[in-house]
Specification:
- The chain has 279 residues and is of the alpha+beta class.
- Helix content is 46%, strand content 20%.
- The chain contains 13 helices and 8 strands.
- The strands form 2 sheets. Strands 2, 4, 5, 6, 7 and 8 form a 6-stranded antiparallel sheet that branches. It has a two-stranded parallel ribbon with strand order 1-3.
- A hairpin with a 4-residue loop joins strand 4 and strand 5.
- The longest helix has 19 residues, at 213-231.
């Protein structure tokens, strides 16, 4: 069945360069995929959902951010009763203007598959603040860029270190690997994002980054663990579990290999005490 195409002229109000919609997503299985003649950017505000694509289904959790270029088929299916999605439609003229001006940004420019990133709780709060400003401000090109450019600039800081020639499916999967729902599942979580076989993903990662899927995921896990150790006081077993490692001995071994010291030494060296002002 040919996917139905949604047209920007039917969605964007006259004169608008950008349009934002908040929607609850039901758990009913979608009857068919659909495409757009415009870029759609959406994020999971609450709950989780299944993202149906032509070759696979991907689970998205709170904070997942997805960009689809025109002609990329997909559909959404909620998981549970509280799935809330925020969707942003961009006028093709705005897209063409940005395409001509922006530097190479893999999240923005991939044309062969949806791009995915993850927003943590702070980043999600910033994104929602920007969305509220967009809702209550002008929807012209200036308002659109005021919303988009800070987001794209922030995303560009979280690089995958892949060369521009790397396949889009690999770029998308490596970006998605920042999502806790992905890296907690280990190498299998990364591979599931690709729609490719594990051996093919392994060969591709070795070619483009010189790492195995396990190496790549463990680097993300240890980066997240280091952040947790210096930003809160959770006990080590809780930190290990939060990054998807149930065996505390294995967590210690990985952490020492990545950071050159034990988790406790790292916390003692880098965690900053909160100093109350004297009265």
């Amino acid at each position: 069945m040919t996917p139905r195409t949604l047209h920007h002229a039917d969605i964007l109000p006259p004169g608008a360069a950008i349009h934002l919609i908040r929607a609850s997503v039901t758990s009913a299985r979608p009857r068919a995929l659909h495409t757009h003649d415009f870029i759609e950017l959406f994020w999971v505000q609450n709950g989780s959902l299944r993202h149906h694509l032509p070759d696979r289904k991907v689970t998205l959790t709170e904070g997942a951010l997805v960009l689809l270029r025109p002609g990329q088929p997909h559909a959404l299916q909620g998981r549970g009763e509280d799935t809330l999605v925020v969707s942003v439609a961009l006028h093709p003229q705005l897209t063409a203007t940005l395409d001509a001006r922006l530097p190479a940004l893999p999240f923005w420019q991939a044309h062969t598959g949806p791009m995915q990133a993850h927003r943590d709780s702070r980043q999600l709060a910033d994104l929602n603040h920007a969305a509220r400003l967009l809702e209550h401000g002008p929807r012209d090109a200036l308002g659109a860029e005021a919303f988009l450019l800070p987001l794209l600039a922030d995303l560009s800081r979280h690089r995958t270190d892949l060369a521009p020639q790397a396949p889009d499916w690999l770029v998308a999967a490596c970006a998605a690997a920042q999502d806790p729902a992905v890296y907690r599942a280990g190498a299998a979580g990364l591979v599931a994002q690709t729609g490719q076989s594990h051996p093919h993903v392994s060969r591709s990662l070795r070619r483009w980054l010189g790492q195995t899927p396990t190496d790549y995921i463990n680097t993300i896990r240890m980066t997240q663990a280091a952040h947790a150790l210096t930003s809160d006081s959770d006990p080590l077993p809780m930190v290990a579990e939060a990054v998807g490692i149930a065996n505390l001995s294995h967590f210690h071994k990985l952490f020492r290999a990545h950071h050159g010291m034990t988790p406790l030494q790292y916390r003692q060296q880098f965690q900053r005490d909160v100093v109350q002002p004297s009265t």
